[in-house]
Amino acid sequence: MAQEPLVVFDHVTKEYRIGQERSNARALIPGRRGEAAESTTFRALDDVSLTMQHGDTLGLIGHNGAGKSTLLRVLAGIVEPSRGHAEVNGRFASLIELGIGFDPELTGHENVFFAGDIMGMSKAEIRKKYDEIVDFSGVAEFLDMPVKRYSTGMRARLGFAVATSIECDLLLVDEVLSVGDFEFQRRSLERIREMNQAGAALVLVTHNLWAVNSMCERVILLDHGKIVVDGTPAEAMKKYIGEEPTTELDPEAGATFEDFRVPPAIAGKVEIDSIRAIPDVIRSGDSITIQATITVNEPCEGVVVMSLFTAERAVFAERELGPSGFLATPGTYVIDAEVPSVPMATGRFQFRIAVLPQDDRHLDQVFPAALAVASAEMKIDGEVMARPGLKLRTNWSVATVPHSH
Amino acid sequence: MSEATVHSNHVRRVGPISVASLRRARSEARLTVSFARRELHSKYRQSALSLFWGIVQPILLVLVYAVVFSQILNVNGGSIPYLPFVVAGIVVWRYFAAGLQQATSFIDRSSVLSKVYFRREVIPLSGCVAALVDLGVGLVALVAVAWWKGIPPSFTLVALPLVLSVLLVYTAAIAILLATITVFIRDVAHAMPTISQVLFLASPILYPESQIPSNLKFLGTVNPVAVVAEATRAVSLEGIWPNFNLLLVHLCIGTALLVGSIFYLRSIEDRIVDVV
């Protein structure tokens, strides 16, 4: 038996009027739409058609104002299309905002029931899930405290726990994962993944391309309310950021930690011919290999190091010391630096490989001298949790590239 | 023609009456009570003096009315002592006024309206449900004051539920209509205090219906607040039966208005979130 599709959008258009009018009295007349022909309208969604099956994972990306959140709100039944037909054949959990319906005056305990009520859970259902909710939120000791005294993180955790406790066919997530600390983000993603594995479809709206890539099999790129790309994450991202995730050396300069310089006196002894991240795009916890091809022209004493930076060039992880012996023998080498479990949750990072002179006394200078330096940047938009002091536990390997004449 | 059919959580469209639709209605009723409880909770927890404001303030108000109107303006309650007379009127009026106050309820809760869908009438109705507490306390106070003034409870009080049901349906209907209109015409919110004042003075709250000049007598018949106030006094203070015919006619009109206001709200509810 063919299952009914979970979501059907049939030429959905949503228009808003631009500008504040003194009164919307016209909208009080049933039957006619609020939009008057002469007023300027803004199309938040423009003729969007899509179908989702149970268990699908869909990412929505696009610039601000592209219509991502409007689409999500139509899915949640909050916004009705101006034209077209939208249908959701199932129950959904909404993470459009964390802590929807929380009343700051009520205690955490009361808010769990109240928010559950608003989201359409039955009292019995909330009671059944109560321990689980409290468990996940980690605010067990504060349940009798009014929510207004909660920290942002506590409120977010409790809100997330309530919203995801609903047994649903569809999970709607709007940019809520940028809230909270690293641990919360990790657990939230895990929870969303669990729900997806249990059969819930997922619609994820975010600017965080990394999250989209790691969670979604299908990505829709919206621009001015229109679907530009509906395909694999790679296709959508390629269109969105104008190029595929690149591994080119970032040309932008700026004095930051570990901005190595290659002094002319030692330039040319060792050259980094290429550097790339394999794969270009990763999921948290996956392994990534930074592969550099290094040509040693003159024997020298040195060491390969790798560092990890955020897009803002903040140090993300401690410098990893790599191999050194091969630098004594001229030749071309492929250095693989494998990070077995990438610890970051979201973002855009830069791996940098440098060959540092072993005896260099200036390593703690602002611009330490290096024999060679190159970086591999993954152009993935998003925020990143900077956690200086993180160990990457890199596995290094060196392979000699035979001369091919 | 657009139509969203979101078969989920709090469901949007009304289908034929079925087990599912009844279950949905129950869930909406539960949500209404939930909102009302939240309102009461936060209202009475916010300030240590909330109980004072909730009880002492109306008492003071009633005393002021009693002194000004009976001592200075020489208004009397007909056969009834003026104090219980005015308490009866004020208790009825306060409930109706709570309905008028729902005019801004959608605007006040815009954040939750724009983030989750549920039947929109839940919001103004929850305000009316919360006001039931005050109504209940007021009625107990009425009986107590009446007794104190030498009027023991009479068996005619059994008609009180019918009287109150008229008040309830009208108040709920007005609450829904005002809340809906105010979303689109904000000026209503500014006009409300004046409208409320006019209605208060136009209704026989502080004066008996018998003092209304004969050419305005029809006001006492068409104005549901007047009908309810008079009937409440009849059953609780005079020990006589109210005008059942008039009450039943108003109950029918009020119920029709309530049902109509709910359907009206549903017909334009999708526009609320666009402007709220």
UniProtKB/TrEMBL annotation, chain A:
UniProt cross-references to InterPro entries, sorted A to Z: AAA+_ATPase (IPR003593), ABC_transporter-like_ATP-bd (IPR003439), ABC_transpr_TagH-like (IPR015860), Bact_Polysacc_Export_ATP-bd (IPR050683), P-loop_NTPase (IPR027417)
Lineage: unclassified sequences, metagenomes, ecological metagenomes
Species annotation: freshwater metagenome
GO MF, one annotated term: ATP binding
The protein's name: Unannotated protein
Coiled-coil regions, chain positions: none
PROSITE patterns in alphabetical order: ABC_TRANSPORTER_2
Domain ABC transporter: 7-249
Example of a GO cellular component annotation carried by this entry: membrane
Keywords: ATP-binding, Nucleotide-binding, Transport
Family designation: Belongs to the ABC transporter superfamily.
Pfam families given in the database record: ABC_tran (PF00005)
Residues spanning the signal sequence: none
UniProtKB/TrEMBL annotation, chain B:
Domain ABC transmembrane type-2 per the UniProt entry, residue ranges: 49-268
Keyword flag Disulfide bond: no
Membrane topology annotation: Multi-pass membrane protein
Gene Ontology BP annotations: lipopolysaccharide transport
GO molecular function, one term: ABC-type transporter activity
Any one Gene Ontology cellular component term annotated for this protein: ATP-binding cassette (ABC) transporter complex
Primary location recorded for the protein, binned into one broad class: membrane
Keyword annotations from UniProtKB, A to Z: Cell inner membrane, Cell membrane, Membrane, Transmembrane, Transmembrane helix, Transport
Record's subcellular location: Cell inner membrane
Transmembrane segments: 47-68, 80-101, 122-148, 154-181, 244-265
Protein name: Unannotated protein
UniProt source species: freshwater metagenome
